[in-house]
What does this fold into?
Amino acid sequence: MRLVRGAWKLLVGIKDGLVLLLMLLFFGALFAVLSARPNPAAVKDGALVLNIDGMIVEQPSEADPFASLGGGEAVREYRMRDLVRALDAAKDDARVKVVVLDLDRFMGGYPAVVSEVAAAVGRVRAAKKPVLAYATAYTDSSYLLAANASEIWVHPIGGTLFSGPGGSRLYYKGLIDKLGVNTHVYKVGKFKSAVEPYLLTGQSPEAKAANEALYGAIFGQWQEAVVKARPKAKLGDTINRPDALIVASNGDIALANERAGLIDKRGDRLAFGKRVAEIAGVDAGKSAGSYKSIKLANWLEANPVAKTGDEIGVITVAGEIIDGKAGPGMAAGDTIADLLLKGLAEKKLKALVVRVDSPGGSVLASERIRQAILQAKAQKLPVVVSMGGLAASGGYWVSMPADVIFAEPNTITGSIGIFGIIPTFENTLAKIGVTSDGVKTTPLTGQPDIYAGTNAVTDRILQAGIEQGYRRFIGLVAASRKMTPQRVDEIGQGRVWDGGTARQLGLVDRFGNLDAAIAEAAKRAKLDPAKVHAVYLEKEPSWFETMVAGFFAGGGDEEEEAAPESGGDLYARIAADRRAVFGQALGDAKRLAMGSSMQARCLECGSFGPAAGTVRADARLIDLVLAKVGL
It folds into this structure.
């Protein structure tokens, strides 16, 4: 009996402990949420600090608050329009004495997205307000932001080298053959190179020529933007003769950068902080190098999006287009269609703007989104498409209902083509003595058979389906762009174009950003663009999601006030880039194993900006594999 009483007391103690733990977690989370909530009243005179320690994206992915529990680190994402709004509000506000760009841990973004923020930085400088940029080592994309600043600082043992877009990618034909995997590819388009890594040992001549033209156009636009923002920079020498400049500076990359006019000052973070304090004021009572600062979250809260006037709906198609439902960061067909149809039913929208930032994906999901957009046209609403960093393949598919398409010169678009991949493992199994057999009642029984391979009937059906899908694609483009199908086929074939060339070809109507697209939508609705506001049709996070995210975020963005000493020197930057390449290889393997639907997807798009979801999902796996191979 004494044993039973003891066991009972133990169970009661465990129960009480669990209840206490849950209460502590609940109140801790509640405190974190309340502490993390932006406070516009906290905005005082000082420096507006943009510590962009992550990627600039069109639409941040759905946060995973438990990512850090497994030892990984979630990649932070900053919404482009938030940064632009913060900068535009800062340029004429007397409380902001200086804007600080902390780019030590900046991870880039697609060219058009980064260019939009760079232009906003330039507007602040044009308003005669100081903008100071700092990094240990600049990348191509971070330097485009910094070039628009008033002063560019770099760490004395840091520096920057410009690599330009491009580089190597992996081709798996040899490995696939050794493993005995039979890759069945069904495609249309001689430039549809998304399948080439599984079929070839290197780029096809067509893909190589197309990529050289695309990369050359994008890099040329980057150079023009940098030279315009910083005319004194000897950009040509830095790009074409980096070794000569660095050797002439005895290997001191930062000194070479200064001599080439790329930077203004060499100094560590302490010296940089003291320089900012000269303008913004010293933050009394804190360590040396501290200065009065304004947090980005508080600043955005103090400068909310306008909500007066008529409503222009904005639906965002950002990320890989997939079937079904998903959170932000993935363009799930059902989710986006439901949000749009709900907005059309419940809101008094006068026009619709479709903001596209996607490399494509599922044809079925792309068509689901397109049909939802057509419902806006059925209600006689003007429809304007605004292409962001990329709108290729399926991203172009969803753009076709537009009355007019806006893009940027460095938007990546086109890739009008379709493909499908099915791997089978009959030869792989044979290598280890495993065979398959069974009864078939029709030519399609068990097809496609991943154990025994596909048969000729299945191959003909699947290829015919892909060809029909391509004919439908070019037919829709022809009707939308007022071209003949033959002309669309000539500029299609899966080829990717930069925005400037796409405009010349008639795939895009005008150059302009999202604001230009909203203004055009207002004009087409016979409204004054100055008297409308955007209504973003997106899912708001629930109170529980906000609470959990706030708890695991640790109470806000304190790192804006006290950033780490360094985000890594030039060599650390190079290593990080190589990890991203390895992550792309993992993505290739995943697509081969799991890609089951007809795809309208752009392979080349990944070379210009990392896919946030892939970086987050694969980060721990990448670290594990690299550790195993000793990298």
Observations:
- Residues 549-564, 611-631 have pLDDT under 50 and may be disordered.
- The CA atoms of residues 474 and 486 lie 8 Å apart.
- The longest helix spans residues 2-36.
